[in-house]
Amino acid sequence: MFRKVLIANRGEIAVRVIRCLREMRIPSVAVFSEADRASLHVQMADEALCIGPPPSSESYLHAGRIIEAAQKSGAEAIHPGYGFLSENAAFARACSDAGIKFIGPAWQSIEQMGSKTAARRIAIAGGAPVVPGTEHGIRDYEEARQSALEIGYPVLLKASAGGGGKGMRRVDSEYELLAAMREASSEAERAFGSGEIYLEKLIERPRHIEIQVLGDEHGNLIHLGERECSIQRRHQKVIEECPSPLVLAKPELRTQIGEAALRIARAVSYANAGTLEFLADQHGHFYFLEMNTRLQVEHPVTEWVTGIDLVRWQIRIAAGEPLTLNQQEIRWTGSAIECRAYAEDPENNFFPSPGTIAQYVEPSGPGVRVDGGVYAGWTVPIEYDPLLAKLSVWAESRSAAIDRMRRAVSEYCVLGITTNLRLFAGIFADPMFLSGDLHTAFLDAFMRQGRIAASDPVEFVAGLIAAASSESSRPAAAVAVNGASGRWRACGRQELIR
Amino acid sequence: MKLRIEVDGEEYTLDIHCEAGESEYTLRGAYAAAGLASVAQVSPGVFSILLDTRSFTVRLAPKGEELEVWTATERRFISVADARDRSGKSKRAAAAGPVQLCAQMPGKVIKLLAQNGTAVEAGQGLIVVEAMKMQNEVKSPKGGVVSKINVREGETVAAGQALMMVE
């Protein structure tokens, strides 16, 4: 086993990996940018090294500095988390060249799956269904126009090198095509360093269902079932669950999609944890989209229902251990749901809202897990993804898990910055969500309803009394007598809480 | 003491007298209520409130001139002032005439989609600002002509900074 592991990431996922390493009694090394000196992952790690200024390109995306940090600290392996360098084949290869184990698949697998168009060809060769579309990057407008015409509108433009919805555009008619191509390509260029985009048929009311796979370096490969991630905003997942309600209705789908996923993963001799994303229509037809050759944000959902610690297995597999689990032994028990708590404003088009967290109280109690990366007093930096924490729950059934999630959300308090937490209470009361009738545009439709839950007037009064009590407990001289002094008072108080 | 409270544009007055842990309150405004409350500050910024037998935890944090008030199902911003303060806040008049576009948060100007003098329609994208790895298109709030562009592509902007004007 490794004697020391470096985590080339930040935030909640760095904390998650550090926790696992501590359980395995492996010393952990955090890396951080100048913006993250006071971050939670730095506090929790055994060792920490600064790797550069706040911009990701000069810190968390700087392969050379990260490898240097590993060498300096004597780390034998690097866990890349998700995002940043986790799906960068050149980085994985550079680690290997430097004699450091990359905790993830072989760089060749990352490279093969790194281009969505190449992944698609692999899937077709492996006999897995794919969405109709161009199988290579689009060269110019004329080619895009022709392809779109053949496939039929609506079509979707996507970045060949990317994920997470960056460089993705829906196009409903030829009229919109040129502008959408420019936007998608420039966004892709900025996010992934490659402006290559491709085009595919848009499946109406699709569900996003993905399969977790786990393979070792001795040829063993299993799947750990699905996660449904249809609740998204701007193509970024917000709520994930297992089992998928579609699988609850059609239990044979888990095996069918799982086996398709294994065929594709086998084609690239996949070793370590990976996820194959599929679109499914409402009838249960499914199409391979892409493979994420890394740990997923939403991995806790699978950990809850299978009882398998994915991060621990990632590390064990990277250290050369064989999988001791076989497919027949995998059992899915109960139901798990995860909500992503973001520093963003659902009422303002989910715009990021960085700032200082004034109060922070996580929920707890039976069946509740929080994978957090923040604390009260932490200033959420503007440089990175606004994910604060992941709240996940487990219960015996989907409806009990939803009840538990509503309870947990009501305990979760973040003050000082705007978060999407309040949104969840509404979603978990929505009849469509409760019935399991999900699709990837669910959240957009939900937001358009603009339904505001009836508020409890007694709770409202309690809030006012507390506010009044806090005002009256301050020295009398500080009570506002005009607007100006009010402003001074507020500033003075902010100084005090810094 | 008598306090003037503003919540979501509604004004309330709250009379509250505390004696031996029990507070007698009278709320007037869009919603009226009166009774006895037990108020306990359990830690800085955290209050336990009992109204009759109903129990609530309220968490507070100052936010600018307002208080951010958290309860189990709501999060509100309220401003509390002594009732003798009659200055009031001037409600912002609806914008007619030139409209100033400002950055909603700190970020970087990625692209200007209009130039000085460009005629634009309401909802048309004018400027692309990136923050937290996300690009956001600032759209024109009305039809008109772009004037006074204050930023350049590649420039870093602060929250509230003026970007451009639409006349």
Number of strands of chain A: 22
Number of helical elements of chain A? 18
Physical arrangement of strands within the biggest beta sheet of chain A: 13-12-9-10-11-14-21-19
Task: Examine the secondary-structure arrangement and name the CATH architecture of the largest domain in chain B.
Answer: 2-Layer Sandwich
Biggest interface between protein chains, with counts per chain?
A-B, 57 and 64 residues
Q: Can you tell me the number of structural domains of chain B?
A: 2
Distance between the termini of chain B: 48 Å
Radius of gyration of chain A, in angstroms, nearest whole number:
24 Å
| Fraction of residues in H or I helices of chain B | under 10%
Strand content of chain A: 15-25%
Question: What number is the mean pLDDT of chain B?
Answer: 83
Please state roughly what percent of the residues of chain B sit in beta strands, choosing from under 5%, 5-15%, 15-25%, 25-35%, 35-45% or over 45%: over 45%
Largest sheet of chain A: 8 strands, antiparallel
Q: What is the CATH superfamily classification of the largest domain in chain A?
A: ATP-grasp fold, B domain
Taken from the alpha-carbon principal axes, the silhouette of chain B is elongated
> Got a strand count of chain B?
16
C-alpha-based Rg of chain B, rounded:
23 Å
Report the mean per-residue pLDDT of chain A as an integer. Answer: 91
**For the report, how would you describe the main beta sheet of chain B?**
8 strands, antiparallel, barrel
Principal-axes shape call of chain A: globular
Topology overview:
The complex is a heterodimer of chains A (498) and B (167).
Chain A: E1 5-7, H1 11-23, E2 28-33, H2 40-44, E3 47-52, H3 63-73, E4 77-79, H4 89-97, E5 101-102, H5 107-114, H6 116-125, H7 141-151, E6 155-159, E7 169-171, H8 174-192, E8 197-201, E9 207-215, E10 221-233, E11 236-242, H9 245-249, H10 252-267, E12 272-280, E13 286-292, H11 299-306, H12 310-318, E14 335-342, E15 344-345, E16 351-352, E17 355-356, E18 359-361, E19 368-372, E20 379-380, E21 387-395, H13 398-411, E22 413-415, H14 421-427, H15 431-435, H16 442-449, H17 457-472, H18 483-497
Parallel strand pairs in A: 1-2, 1-4, 2-3, 4-5
Antiparallel strand pairs in A: 6-7, 6-8, 9-10, 9-12, 10-11, 11-14, 12-13, 14-21, 15-16, 17-20, 18-22, 19-21
Helix pairs in contact in A: 4-5, 7-8
Chain B: E1 2-7, E2 10-19, E3 22-29, E4 33-43, E5 46-51, E6 54-63, E7 66-70, E8 75-82, E9 99-102, E10 107-112, E11 119-120, E12 125-131, E13 134-139, E14 144-147, E15 156-157, E16 162-166
Antiparallel strand pairs in B: 1-2, 1-8, 2-3, 3-4, 4-5, 5-6, 6-7, 7-8, 9-16, 10-12, 10-15, 11-14, 12-13, 14-16
